[in-house]
Structure formats: C-alpha cells, structure tokens
C-alpha cells in the first residue's frame, strides 16, 4: 500500500452552541464537506485555505484529535475514523503533530527535556535520555537546553522543541499546523530548512497546513486548496502555481506579495 | 546561529528572595516555635488565676509586676503565656483545616474544570447551592449541632470553605485545559486523568499554594470568630479569639488584654497571605 493516508468522503460537523435552543440539541455546522484525497508515503502535502476554510479541522481529524462524523480516514490501511482513545494509543506514536503556537503547546511549567521525554516514556521507549539528546541534536538545539523552561527560549527555539518532541517518537507522519506563522521571516526560513532536512533524513511523510502559499511553494510537492470546508483544487505544486484551475486558488495566488510586482510566477 | 549558542541570558534570570517571604516565614517560624515550646518558654501558667494580680499592665508601665511581660487580664492570667498557648490552637486549625479544605476543594475544582461534562455539572451545582448558605450562620449551626471542640471547628471550616478552592481552581483548570499542550498530550497518547495530573496540575499549583496560605489565615480568623462567640473549644483554654472577646469588655481599664492578641492575630493572618505570594514569586518557574 503506497498511500500512508487515505481520506474518503470525510465529513465533520460540530454543534453550534451559540444557536442552541433552550431545550434540545444545538444545530450542527458542517466544517468539512466530502473531503477525499490520498497522501502517498514520503510526500509533503500542503494544505492551504483562508481562515475558517477547515484546514486545521482537517488536520485534527487526520491525527484524531477530532472524530469525523462521516466518511473514512485510513492510516497505513487501517481505519482510524472512529477508534476510541484506548485503541488509538498504540497508533499514536506513528502520527504526530507540531502545533502553531509553541507557547501554548509546550507546557510552561515543564522543562524542555521533560517535554520531549514524556511521550517517549509513555510509549515505553527504553533509552529515553539518549533519545532526548538525539532529538535536541536533530533540531540543532544545544543539549543543555533540556534543563530550560519554554519561556527561557526564543520563538524559533521553542518551535524547534515542538519539532523535537514530534520526531523523537520516530513517527511515520507529522502534521505541521501553521508552524511558522508566529515566527519572523529569518526564523521561518530556518525552521523550514530544518523540517525539510528532517523529512529527507528520517523518511517522514508530512502534511503542512498554511495560509501562506509562498511557504507551501517552497516546501511541498502537492497542494490541497480548501475553501469553506471543501477541496477546490488538488494539484502538484508546480502545476498549481503555473496554471491554477480554481478561481479561489487564483485569488490566493494574487494575494502573494511579489518581490517585483511586474514579474509573474513562472 | 548566535541565538542558539545558549548564552543569550534567558536562563540566567534569577529572582532574589523577597523580603515578603522572609518576613512572613520568619514570623510564622517564631509562632511555630512558640507553640511547640510553650510549656518551657511561657513565663506563667496560662490558666493560673490570681485576683490580686488582676489587670497588671505590661512590664514597661508603672505598676507592673516582673514576670508578667505583657500584663494580665481581669482574672490575673498572664497575657503573654496565654498568647503562646493560644498559638497552638491557632496553628493546628490553620494547618489541618487549611490543608483539608485545600485538598478537597482543589481536587473537586480540578476535576470539574478539566474533565467537564457531568462531573462539572454535578460539582458546579453543588458549589452554587453551597454558596447560597450564609457562611457564618452555617458554621454556627454546624457547631451547635456537633458540639464545640477542635474537630468541630476544623470540620466547619472545611465544609464551608471548600467552595473557595473549587471555584478558583475550576476556572484555572478550564483556562489551562484550552491550551495546546493538552492536545499535544492527547497526540502523545496520554489519558485524560494522567493529563490532568501531570500537565494541568503543575500549572494550577501556584494558584493552589496562594489559596492554601490565604485559607490558613482565614482559618485562624474563623477560629478567632468562633472563640469570640464562645463556640470554639472550652472557655478555659487560651485562644486568641477568646482573649479578644475578654479584652473587649475591659478595653478602657486594660487595653493590653485586647491589643496584644489582636496584633498577634493580625500579623499571623497577614504572614499567611504574604507567604503564599512570596512562595509563588520565588518558586514558580514561569515569570508573570
């Protein structure tokens, strides 16, 4: 089976509690509508869309932080759509996630070493300290940072800790949800280079969620464009930038500031 | 990459130990020693009455007797000795009632705030109903039913004040529960209860410590109030609240009977509240 992920007719709706009547259940909002795609092993898939397009929801359904209301999510051929936490636990090591805001995703009262070690210990790895050191080396952080608290790091360093925590488990898949949007441009470039290197070195499959097409273009081999919870375009990156098919994709492309306004993407 | 060399000073920030912490811990330390050593350091028997020695002023005033440092009350009992012995009851109530209240209230608040669902519904409704009772009347009623005594005082404080912890900790746990590190723990495969204890608890702990020391101060005050209205332990045993009640009746003839226990009570309650703040400033790894 070449596809690591296979998503078929995925639907996800959440209750709209603001419109909940006094009695009875709240009306549901459709967040994802009939989303289908396949993610082959080793590919870097970009997921773009404006805010509210459902890209983070799609990501969270893939790593089963959310349970889909319809359709199927297959991971490595196994149906994980409706598995409960207990059944997911052994699979969790294989798909990991890096979050947008490391200030929120790194426990502020745990030291960096502890943050990276906790998932390793949970999955019963034997040589936890060695793996923590290795993970820090991988993301280019000095080993003594293990003794620091997240607030003692810079933004880029914090995001490296997030990456270290994810790769320490040696997963097959990593979901990166807007991981550079909180960083300045030079830290963005460093983190993207790092991630690209790790994908090659560790043979990872990556889904990279972003609202920024220029970041996607730099990193991804294939792009999904989401608009209001549905896929409007699914194309190889080069094709998408050369000849966008959907109107919404053209809008997104037009929104990229060009170094030279007269020059076109080519 | 200079920023990764580890010499950027972010981990070199050290906070000095605040005056707050030293002063409050110092006073409470003195008080603990006084309570433990009362039989050896008290100059007089705290229960010994001698009507010929009634209303003696403190030792630096005219008409004082040596050996009665802070004067005597209307029954001739030594004020300093009674304060020292009174510290025993005050501290036992503060520590036992404070810790029990904290343990029960914080556990319920943590579960309600993090686990949500029906657990939250049950606990939150209980808090709402509980808080509709007027606390002072509630405690007087409780002690009237159970009879005065140390256990009754402690139980009354726990039964009334657990909501204080539960409400604050619940709100804090809810705020922490929305953080991504909780989702991250789920991605790592950690269970809900384990996440609550290893991820949420360390972040709520500073708040709990501040509340705990505040509660210890409150427990001292509650004990004093109950002594004041004669619902604490037996009237013979020295308590600060009892002394204040007695001193009130003779404030014009013998101010020292009222003022010294009152100042002691004030400093103790203040120290407890400052201790919490000081501990948080000193030991919480996250600068706020």
UniProtKB/TrEMBL annotation, chain A:
Q: Which InterPro entries match?
A: AAA+_ATPase, ABC_transp_ATP-bind, ABC_transporter-like_ATP-bd, ABC_transporter-like_CS, P-loop_NTPase
Q: What is any one GO biological process for this UniProt entry?
A: transmembrane transport
Describe the location of the ABC transporter domain by residue ranges. 12-253
Q: Which GO molecular function entries does the Swiss-Prot or TrEMBL record give? A: ATP binding; ATP hydrolysis activity
Query: SUPFAM superfamilies, from UniProt?
Result: P-loop containing nucleoside triphosphate hydrolases
Keywords linked to the UniProt accession? ATP-binding, Nucleotide-binding, Transport
Pfam family, any one? ABC_tran
Return the Gene3D superfamilies for the record: P-loop containing nucleotide triphosphate hydrolases (3.40.50.300)
The record's CDD domains line, in alphabetical order, gives: ABC_NikE_OppD_transporters
Tell me which PANTHER family the record gives.
Answer: D,D-DIPEPTIDE TRANSPORT ATP-BINDING PROTEIN DDPF-RELATED, TRANSPORT ATP-BINDING PROTEIN
Tell me its family.
Belongs to the ABC transporter superfamily.
Name the record gives this protein: ABC transporter ATP-binding protein
User: Which species is this UniProt entry from?
Assistant: Tabrizicola oligotrophica
Q: What is the taxonomic lineage of the source species? A: Bacteria, Pseudomonadati, Pseudomonadota, Alphaproteobacteria, Rhodobacterales
UniProtKB/TrEMBL annotation, chain B:
> Where would you say this protein principally sits, based on its record?
membrane
ABC transmembrane type-1 domain ranges (all copies): 87-276
**GO cellular-component term (any):** plasma membrane
Note the topology in the membrane.
Answer: Multi-pass membrane protein
Which UniProt keywords are present, listed alphabetically? Cell membrane, Membrane, Peptide transport, Protein transport, Transmembrane, Transmembrane helix, Transport
Transmembrane segment boundaries = 21-42, 89-115, 136-160, 204-233, 254-275
Q: What is this protein called?
A: ABC transporter permease
Organism encoding this protein:
Tabrizicola oligotrophica
């Amino acid at each position: 089976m070449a596809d690591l992920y296979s998503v078929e007719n995925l639907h996800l709706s959440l209750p709209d509690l603001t419109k909940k009547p006094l009695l009875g259940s709240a009306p549901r909002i459709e967040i994802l509508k009939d989303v289908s795609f396949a993610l082959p092993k080793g590919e870097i898939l970009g997921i773009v869309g404006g805010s509210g397009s459902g890209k983070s929801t799609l990501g969270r359904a893939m790593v089963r932080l959310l349970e889909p209301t319809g359709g199927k999510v297959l991971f490595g051929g196994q149906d994980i759509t409706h598995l409960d936490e207990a059944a997911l636990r052994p699979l969790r090591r294989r798909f990991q996630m890096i979050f947008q805001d490391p200030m929120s995703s790194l426990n502020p009262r745990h030291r960096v070493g502890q943050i990276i070690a906790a998932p390793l210990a949970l999955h019963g790895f034997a040589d936890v300290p060695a793996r923590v050191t290795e993970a820090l080396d991988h993301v280019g952080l000095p080993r003594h940072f293990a003794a620091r608290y997240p607030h003692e790091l810079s933004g880029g360093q914090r995001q490296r800790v997030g990456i270290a925590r994810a790769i320490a488990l040696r997963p097959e898949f990593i979901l990166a949800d807007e991981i550079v949007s909180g960083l300045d441009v030079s830290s963005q470039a460093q983190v993207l280079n790092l991630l690209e290197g790790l994908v090659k070195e560790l043979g990872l499959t990556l889904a990279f969620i972003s609202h920024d097409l220029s970041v996607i273009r730099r990193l991804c081999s294939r792009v999904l464009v989401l608009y209001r919870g549905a896929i409007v375009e699914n194309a190889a990156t080069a094709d998408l930038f050369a000849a966008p098919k959907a109107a919404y994709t053209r809008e997104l492309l037009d929104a990229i500031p060009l170094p030279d306004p007269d020059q076109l993407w080519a | 990459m200079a920023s990764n060399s580890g010499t950027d000073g972010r981990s070199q920030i050290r906070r000095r130990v605040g005056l707050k912490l030293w002063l409050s811990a110092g006073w409470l330390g003195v008080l603990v020693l006084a309570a433990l050593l009362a039989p050896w350091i008290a100059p007089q028997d705290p229960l010994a009455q001698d009507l010929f020695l009634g209303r003696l002023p403190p030792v630096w005033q005219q008409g004082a007797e040596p050996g009665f440092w802070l004067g005597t009350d209307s029954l001739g009992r030594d004020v300093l000795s009674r304060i020292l012995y009174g510290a025993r009851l005050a501290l036992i109530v503060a520590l036992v009632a404070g810790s029990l209240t904290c343990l029960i209230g914080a556990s319920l608040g943590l579960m309600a705030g993090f686990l949500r669902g029906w657990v939250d519904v049950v606990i939150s409704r209980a808090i709402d109903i509980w808080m509709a009772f007027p606390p002072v009347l509630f405690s007087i009623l409780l002690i009237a039913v159970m009879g005065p005594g140390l256990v009754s005082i402690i139980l009354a404080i726990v039964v009334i004040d657990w909501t204080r912890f539960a409400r604050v900790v619940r709100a804090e746990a809810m705020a922490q529960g929305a953080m991504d590190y909780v989702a991250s723990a789920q991605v790592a495969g950690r269970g809900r209860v384990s996440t609550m204890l290893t991820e949420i608890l360390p972040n709520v702990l500073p708040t709990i410590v501040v509340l705990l020391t505040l509660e210890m101060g409150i427990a001292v005050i509650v004990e004093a109030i109950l002594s004041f209205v004669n619902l604490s332990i037996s009237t013979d045993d020295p308590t600060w609240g009892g002394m204040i009640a007695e001193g009130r009746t003779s404030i014009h003839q013998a101010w020292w009977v009222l003022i010294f226990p009152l100042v002691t009570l004030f400093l103790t309650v203040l120290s407890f509240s400052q201790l919490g703040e000081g501990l948080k400033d000193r030991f919480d790894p996250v600068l706020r």
